[in-house]
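> agent: user asked for a holo structure of the chain below bound to pyridoxal-5'-phosphate. Plan: (1) validate sequence alphabet, (2) canonicalize SMILES, (3) run complex prediction with ligand conditioning, (4) return tokens. Step 1... ok. Step 2... ok. Step 3 dispatched.
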Amino acid sequence: MIPYGKHHIDEDDIAAVVEVLRGDWLTTGPTVTDFENGVAKYIGVTNAVAVSSGTAALHAAMFALEIKPGDEVIVSPITFAASANCVVYMGATPVFADVEPDTLLIDPKSVAEKITNKTRAIIAVDYAGQTCDYKALKAICEEFNLKLVGDCCHALGAKDEHGQQAGSIADISVLSFHPVKHITTGEGGMALTNNHELAKKMRTFRNHGIDVDASTRSQKCTWVYEMQELGYNYRITDIQCALGISQLKKLDNFLQIRRQLAAKYRFLFLNHYEIKPLKIKKGVEHAFHLYTVKVPANKRKAAFEEMRSQGFGVNVHYIPVHYHPYYKKHFNTGAGLCPVAEAAYEELLTLPLHPGMTERQIDSSAKTLDTILKNCK
Ligand SMILES: *Cc1c(COP(=O)(O)O)cnc(C)c1O
């Protein structure tokens, strides 16, 4: 089975991890800082806080922005549940805004309609690997005094239509280093910001709410620390960050392969009567975390099953978050809340795309889907 996404690890990566294993610091050591500095430099932000997952980074972002019970945070429903769960962790209420039909990115018009006097923040998701309309979202944030979080887990290496790096645009941006993402640390995540105060809060949050970490205490020769806030153990290890540093060196190459393979799909589906790739906005540099197409809703299930049975690990990204039983039960969500997202969901299919694939495999994945749809009544 060719999976829809997969990590790409080589001997350099393995050697980098082994080197840390032979050293003095397995966690909270210099390799964590080096990885943070490397990603911060790549994206062009002043602060990067590495944590144990993308979900932990989202939670840290909500904590730093002081989201509390009673607050509302506007989120896209076409995303992984974690994008909304982080709001619930703070006791606040996620409010789902609809998406644009051709990109599945959060629709600023729908966002504006969902604002109430309880709204505190917006979480924009750079779905599939292209940036949201941050200009419009920032204008809304300014008008209503809201904070903007970018869930950029799909978009490492993407640029918006003004040449700005994904991850550098919102008040806080979040990355994941799960194995299906652009670069991996096994599990891992990062929160990025140009605001030192927010970064400081997130650093504390990942370490139980304690103000000095172990390596700082060791440098200062003191046992003293204070727990100022309730945090968690969301630390990432030096072992993981060694892998991250090694992977970061290959990111541009991974992106180039992803873009090349995506262009191949696009060429093969050009003017196809049933397979419709999502729109790529003019002037953006897409990072192609996912290659998602729309197929006729009445054929989607058969296409999914047939592709799987023929060795193509297709998937569906995503079941709208507000369809999940948890959200229905606790937030009274359900069908009708975001009609555009709901209609799109019926047609979505994610095709295999990752740096270990060849153009030939893309060709065969595209042609198999074409044949399946033709034979499907
Ligand atoms: C992967 C992902 C996350 C969560 O990241 P983890 O590292 O798995 O916790 C959050 N949001 C989106 C959009 C993602 O794709």
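> agent: step 4 complete. Summary for user: The pocket of pyridoxal-5'-phosphate is lined by residues 53-55, 79-80, 82-83, 125, 151, 153-154, 176, 178, 189 (CB under 6 Å). Residues 46 and 194 are 5 Å apart (CA to CA).
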